[in-house]
Structures are given as structure tokens and as C-alpha cells.
């Protein structure tokens, strides 16, 4: 009996010792990392947020500024939006990993990754504040580090102050460390991408400064950027475009390529877009719209846009029905969108383009906010850049010629002539064309400038008013009610018609 007890005791001691010595090793899964590197986080953040930008352009951005219109399920076109949480969820859902990149890069002294992360943080928070107004900003990423689960809402003015500071810091940081960017699916990574990220940082600063130019005197800041291109490089050609190139095969194709044809064809070219481009014989019209299937006379190539804001029946029956109105152009088409077979990666995921930068500079120069350069030159550069962009990406088999007619730039509707207001209207209208499919940027810019004219459709459900913001997500009432309530008290009624700070 004593021998048996000794054996049992010895086995127990052996097992206890073995467990004590090897517990952590046995219970650690070597295939599940406990920490990731910035490059692994960066690729996912870029892909997710740019794809969300494409989706927001399709669902609301193109509709509200009347690039496209709907012929079925027309609620969006009539401003019956309900909750619009896509931007909120995209920004705050991805901001955790942006902050993780910032933390990892800071700890490792990786200034290139830190600069890129600050740029992306700035772009994302710009989307959120322009869509909603006051938002959680300074405390938004402190749940893990500071236990802040109900972050305060900062004023939009404070948010823009932070955004501009981060973009300036990013410009200073990039190129001051030796790590090579990996995971950079936007600019290709490597040493060559650093210059393009710096140009994006300063180009986004131009956009942000012009956005708040009605509330602050931004002339000195704008002039400092354009007067010292060595220190503050900005986009210089279409080669600098921040535009994600998709792949020909799944799962990284153009996000709308796999759409059901019925869902895709609910959206058609808008009468506002088609009529404006027809009026100036603009060669980009076939890029944005397809000829109608049933023209007014046999063999005629005809483009007909749908008026925005029609009810279900008049929208579906406009000009004799769906075959009498133009579909969205083939470069933005889906898998089953007729002949010729659409190429799955023609369209890009746009963040910012050289054309937009030129239009920003044209406006700033025309308003005497900067003294460098010619407003007319910037304006003409912007038009040509957008046309050249489409020349470069539209496949030859589509048979689309984006070369303008010889008299395009001298005709009254395009030539840089007239009063200051008329010139600003030409800048704004050409910029509006160039912002097609660039998320909500066309809407944000229209709210600031009022150019071009956007008239609510006859069957709109918002009292003949174009919406000027998104209401906060309802989840915020339950999860962060006190801080949301303070923001609403400060900002105004939480609805589609309360202008944000820079728009008041």
C-alpha cells in the first residue's frame, strides 16, 4: 500500500512539474500572432476604406449632386435616406487599425509608416466630419489605451485644426526614416511612394483649407504651400493621383463589378449631367453614360439622362421606359452589363486627383487667396487632366474617344471669360464633372460653393431642400447618448437640413 501511494505521489509531482514548466508553450498557438506589423494593417485599411468610398459614391454621392438618377427604388433620389451609417462605421471601424499603425510606428521610430497613418487618419476624419459635423475625434481611439468608451464629440472647427496639423506633421515626417513601405496598395510601396504620399498630404491640406475658407482666413496657409513646392510638394500630374487600381480577378476587382444587373441598372445617368455635357460637346459623356437602346430614330446615337427626384412610376416610365434612358457608362459597369463585355478593373477607387488640385488652385487664385500662378492655367490644366485620366484608363475596345474638339476650350461655356462669378461657376462646374465617383466629395464641395445648381426633383420628400448632412447613427443615442446630445445642442437639430460649421 505504501508503494502504491509513493507511485501515485510521484506521478502527481511529475505532472504538476510538467504543467508548470510547459503550460505557456502548450497553450500558445504558433499560427495566431499576438502582434502584427504596420504593413499587414496598412493594406487592409486602404482596401476597406477606399472600397467603402466607392460604395458611398454609388449609393448617395453621385445621386445627391445629380451625376446619376434612379429609375427604381427611388428613395435615395427623393431624399428619403433614413440612417446613413456607412461613413461612420467605415471611419470608426477602421480607425482602430490606423491607430495601431500609429502606435507601432511611433514605438519603432518608423516615421514613414507614421506619416502615412496620419494622412489616412486625416482623410478618414475629414469624411466623417464633413458628413456629420461634430464628431468624436480626440478621444475616438482611446478605448484600449485610456478606457474611454464614450468619447466626447469635438467641434468641427477643432477637428479641422487637428486634421491640418496632422497633415503638416506627416509632410515633415515622411522620408526621415529608412524603413521601406510595404502593404502600400495605393502607391505601390517602396522608396518611390514616399514622394507621392507627401504630395497627397499637402494636396489634402489644400482641400481642407478651401473647405473652411468661408470661416477662416486661410490665404497665408495656402500661399505658403504653393510658394514652396520643395518643402510642400503637391500633385503635379495624373501620375500622382491617389487612385486605387483594382485587379482583373476576384476578390480585388472594382467593388461594383459583381453587382446584380437589376440593382446596377436602377441607377442611370442624370439629366443634369447629360444635358450639361451635351451643351458643350464634352467628350467625357460616353465615359459616364451609354447611348440609349431605343433612340428617337433608328441608328441615332442618343444620350438621354433621367431627371432626379422623380417618383417610382414617372422615373420608370421616363422617355418611354428603361430602354429610352442612358445607363451608367461602361468604365463603371458590372459583370453582366451587356456588350462589349466590361473590363473588371477599369474604374479606380478615387481619393484625390491632380485635376481636383488644379481646380482648387484655380478657385483660390481667382479669389486672390494665393498670388502664385494663373487661375486660367490652373482651370485648363484641371479639365485636360481629367480628360487625360480617362484617356489612359478606358480600354480601346470600348471605342470611346476622349479627345476634345478643336474648339472645345474656346466655346462660351468653357472659355475662361466673364465676371469673377462666371469664372468661379466654370471652375466649379468642371470640378463637379471631375468629381464623379469620388465618394461624397462632390456633395461636400457643392455644399461649400453652391456650384453647379442642384435643384431638388419634383417628387422630393425633403421640403424642396437638398440635404446638407447625415444624421448621427441611432446607435449613438444608446451607446454615447450624453455626448451625442451635447453635440446636437451645440450644432442644431439632428436631421438632413442642419448645416455643419463650415457651411453655416
Description:
The chain is mainly α. The chain has a single domain (38-256, 345-503), classed as Serine Threonine Protein Phosphatase 5, Tetratricopeptide repeat, CATH 1.25.40. It is built from 18 helices and six strands. The strands form three sheets. Strands 1-5 form a two-stranded antiparallel ribbon. It has a two-stranded antiparallel ribbon with strand order 2-3. α13 runs antiparallel to α14. The longest helix has 27 residues, at 38-64. The protein is globular, with a radius of gyration of 26 Å. It starts with a helix and ends in a 13-residue tail after the last helix. Residues 1-20 have low confidence and may be disordered. Keywords: Lipoprotein, Signal. Residues 1-20 form the signal peptide.
The level-1 CATH class: Mainly Alpha
SSE class: mainly alpha
| CATH topology heading | Serine Threonine Protein Phosphatase 5, Tetratricopeptide repeat
Q: Based on Cα principal axes, name the global outline.
A: globular
Domain module count: 1
Q: How many distinct beta strands?
A: 6
Unreliable segments of 5+ consecutive residues: 1-20
Tell me the distance between the termini. 92 Å
**Helix percentage range:** 40-55%
Signal peptide: 1-20
Organism: Spirosoma sordidisoli
Protein name: SusD/RagB family nutrient-binding outer membrane lipoprotein
Pfam families: SusD-like_2 (PF12771)
Amino acid at each position: 500500500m505504501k508503494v502504491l501511494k509513493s507511485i501515485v505521489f510521484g506521478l502527481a509531482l511529475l505532472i504538476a512539474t510538467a504543467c508548470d514548466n510547459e503550460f505557456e508553450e502548450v497553450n500558445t498557438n504558433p499560427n495566431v500572432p499576438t502582434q502584427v506589423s504596420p504593413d499587414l494593417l496598412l493594406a487592409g485599411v486602404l482596401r476597406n476604406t477606399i472600397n467603402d468610398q466607392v460604395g458611398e459614391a454609388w449609393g448617395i454621392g453621385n445621386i445627391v449632386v445629380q451625376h446619376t438618377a434612379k429609375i427604381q427604388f427611388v428613395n435615395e433620389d427623393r431624399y428619403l435616406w433614413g440612417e446613413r451609417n456607412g461613413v461612420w462605421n467605415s471611419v470608426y471601424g477602421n480607425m482602430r487599425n490606423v491607430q495601431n499603425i500609429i502606435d507601432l510606428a511611433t514605438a519603432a521610430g518608423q516615421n514613414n509608416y507614421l506619416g502615412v497613418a496620419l494622412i489616412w487618419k486625416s482623410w478618414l476624419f475629414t469624411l466623417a466630419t464633413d458628413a456629420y459635423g461634430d464628431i468624436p475625434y480626440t478621444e475616438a481611439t482611446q478605448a484600449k489605451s485610456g478606457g474611454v468608451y464614450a468619447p466626447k464629440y469635438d467641434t468641427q472647427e477643432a477637428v479641422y485644426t487637428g486634421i491640418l496639423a496632422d497633415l503638416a506633421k506627416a509632410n515633415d515626417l515622411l522620408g526621415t526614416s529608412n524603413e521601406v513601405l510595404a502593404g502600400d496598395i495605393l502607391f505601390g510601396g517602396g522608396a518611390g511612394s514616399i514622394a507621392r504620399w507627401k504630395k497627397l498630404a499637402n494636396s489634402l491640406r489644400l482641400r481642407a483649407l478651401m473647405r473652411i475658407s468661408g470661416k477662416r482666413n486661410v490665404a497665408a496657409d495656402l500661399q505658403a504651400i504653393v510658394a514652396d513646392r520643395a518643402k510642400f510638394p503637391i500633385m503635379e500630374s495624373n501620375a500622382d493621383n491617389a487612385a486605387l487600381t483594382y485587379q482583373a480577378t476576384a476578390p480585388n476587382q472594382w467593388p461594383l463589378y459583381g453587382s446584380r444587373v437589376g440593382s446596377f441598372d436602377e441607377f442611370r445617368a442624370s439629366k443634369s449631367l447629360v444635358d450639361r455635357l451635351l451643351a458643350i460637346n464634352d467628350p467625357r459623356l460616353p465615359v459616364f453614360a451609354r447611348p440609349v437602346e431605343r433612340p428617337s430614330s433608328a441608328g441615332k446615337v442618343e444620350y438621354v439622362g433621367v431627371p432626379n427626384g422623380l417618383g417610382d412610376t414617372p422615373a420608370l416610365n421616363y422617355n418611354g421606359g428603361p430602354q429610352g434612358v442612358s445607363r451608367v457608362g461602361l468604365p463603371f459597369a458590372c459583370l453582366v452589363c451587356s456588350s462589349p463585355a466590361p473590363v473588371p478593373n477599369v474604374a479606380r477607387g478615387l481619393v484625390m486627383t491632380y485635376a481636383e488640385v488644379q481646380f482648387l488652385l484655380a478657385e483660390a487664385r481667382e479669389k486672390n487667396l494665393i498670388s502664385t500662378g494663373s487661375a486660367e492655367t490652373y482651370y485648363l490644366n484641371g479639365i485636360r487632366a481629367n480628360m487625360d485620366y480617362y484617356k489612359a484608363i478606358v480600354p480601346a475596345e470600348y471605342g470611346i474617344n476622349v479627345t476634345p474638339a478643336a474648339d472645345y476650350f474656346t466655346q462660351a461655356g468653357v472659355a475662361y471669360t466673364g465676371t469673377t462669378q462666371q469664372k468661379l461657376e466654370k471652375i466649379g462646374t468642371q470640378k463637379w464633372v471631375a468629381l464623379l465617383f469620388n465618394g461624397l466629395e462632390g456633395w461636400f464641395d457643392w455644399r461649400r460653393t453652391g456650384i453647379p445648381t442642384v435643384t431638388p426633383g419634383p417628387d422630393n420628400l425633403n421640403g424642396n431642400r437638398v440635404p446638407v448632412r447625415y444624421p448621427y447613427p441611432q446607435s449613438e443615442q444608446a451607446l454615447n447618448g450624453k455626448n451625442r446630445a451635447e453635440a446636437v445642442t451645440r450644432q442644431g437639430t439632428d436631421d438632413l437640413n442642419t448645416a455643419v460649421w463650415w457651411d453655416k
